[in-house]
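Chapter summary example: a protein plus magnesium ion.
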Amino acid sequence: MNFSADIGTVKGVGAVRADGFRSLGVATVGELLRFYPRAYEDWSSILPIERCPIGENVCIKGTLLYPIKNDRVRGGMMIAKGSVTDGDSIVSVTFFNNKYITSMLKSGEEYLFYGKITLGKYAAREMLSPMFIPVKKSKEILPIYHQNAKITTRQIRSAVSTVLEDKTEIPEFLPQYILKKYSLVSLDTAIRRIHFPKDAEALQAARNRLIFDELFLLQLSLMRLKDKNSAVKTENKIKLDCTDEFFSLLPFEMTNAQKKAVKDAVSDMKSGKQMNRLLQGDVGSGKTAVAAALVFVCAKNGMQSALMAPTEVLAVQHFETFTSLFSQAGIICELLTGSSKASEKKQIKERLKNGEIDLIIGTHALIQDDVEFSRLGLVITDEQHRFGVKQRTGLCSKGQNPHVYVMSATPIPRTLALIVFGDLDVSVLDELPPGRQKTVTYAVSSKKRQSMFDYIKTYLDKGFQGYIVCPLVEESDAIAGVQNAEEYYEKAVNTVFKNYSVGLLHGKMTPKKKDEIMSDFKSGKIQLLISTVVIEVGVDVPNAVIMVIENAERFGLSQLHQLRGRVGRGKQMSTCILVTDSTGEDTVKRMNVMCSTTDGFKIADEDLRLRGPGDFFGTRQHGLPQLRIADLMTDSKILTQTQILAGEIMKSDPNFTKTEHIKIGRQVNKKISTLQTPAAANTI
Ligand code: ADP
Ligand code: MG
């Protein structure tokens, strides 16, 4: 079997079909074998008609009672009906628009039928458009593949079966000791059985082996990458540890978690190797102060830092925090965003290049080609879930192996942290600054809106501020029953809140306008801010103590948690009101979670459980590798097994030089190249 042979060389696959395969990402024989079925038709376990569950795919064996007849009905459609019995019960079978059906199904012959049984008139059992094969042919489990307009499951099935006619053994790469310890079948068996399993048990064994491979190789590769990263030497070595000097600048004492995080990072940067570290901290845990400490230490050691924020609002906020903190310390900060004036930009870029600026804060504008540094030593990205790995590395290429610090406010469930951030070391802020009050959360229906407004007013009257978050921006986006910020704002200023100062903030405004509104809100000039999710990340206004989230059903748990994190940042107890009229099971569960906990890790776990890893991470930009067969939720046992095994091998034989590990090493290298260029082929 030549795995790298072009898919077009498979017997029966012509140019058109080969194109179809390529459109599914299958270009070679090896890729075809790794194109696992998404489901199966089980023709092997035949059920008596009487015992078939209604509405599920089943296979029955029966004899056609009468010759089938094709009738033409209105609209030119053809309908053919027949009756099938297994001796005890009868099921009617119906076929649409099939000219040949009368010659395919013969009265008195026995067939296997596969499909869903439903209940028709008078609870009579029927099967609509079932698949069928004569009983004389075989009974088996057949694969169902992801298909598209260019190629069908049947065509894929036949190509796979042609390839597997070659009985040469598919080479094994796992040593005996691993196969034995984890009771795994050989790769040859697994690949053959995943496409054409004899029975459910064989299928399970095949799946187990392939899931094991996928998770094992992934984790080994990530561990290798991490090793490689942490071995990169850099000139950006910290010689002068002046963290104590920094601590004295702060208006508060750092929490132990913050101190520990600073210590982790500083000792990385002292080592002469490049730092690659993630700071995970729940909303409000004080990540900014940690970042500031690192910037300070780098500046005192003659290195420049860059801080990249996902939104302009956030970049401006950081700029304000850092300038006021660093003003007496002689550390020069500048802000560079898409909306900075051209002349200003030019001047900042020049000073950056000359080394006059210690810290540049900005949005992705920082990655543009003409931004150059004199000596970039530290790259910090805030709220990393908004950035791709590409942007992170794009900024790094502007220095000589600068240290990399990633801050994320999305707590990742512990079981997944290693996979998502496998190439980074991790510090966790698992402690909130002292004196924080829990945010009390309620879920209410829109009928309560009026009394909710009165409640908000009591806080505004006491001098506090609040947010109301709407899912949509303007009326033209209208979806029935979903609040939009513009209309909400109009109503608020003209009616209920006409005696208060109300602001509107959304993503369609110019960056300049957004800044204005944000700074008015920060200064207290605006009491109530009506906004879309643009305030989701990072915004810090401790005097805001009440938040209303309209149409809360439209937000995921992690997003609700992020939004809610905008309040509860001061000494005053805060309130979050989730407004929803949805009574869907999912919504109710999410609201219950939100009302019962403020622990970001717990919420992340729940979110993952409710949504599944695919949706949880939203897109691939989160860095979660695409998995072919493993499911991070349901396969957590194999995940843990492989995590431990991979760790052991990395310890005892990190370069895969032992005879029994050489082949694993080759697979790992292949995997690493696919991780770095996701489009690269995944062959055997
Ligand atoms: P996040 O981790 O969500 O980015 P921030 O860095 O914005 O959190 O910090 C939230 C708020 O807590 C800020 O107002 C900040 O000044 C304050 N803060 C941070 N650390 C401490 C601390 N150790 N003690 C008191 N307040 C703190
Ligand atoms: Mg933050």
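Key point: The CA atoms of residues 242 and 397 lie 27 Å apart.
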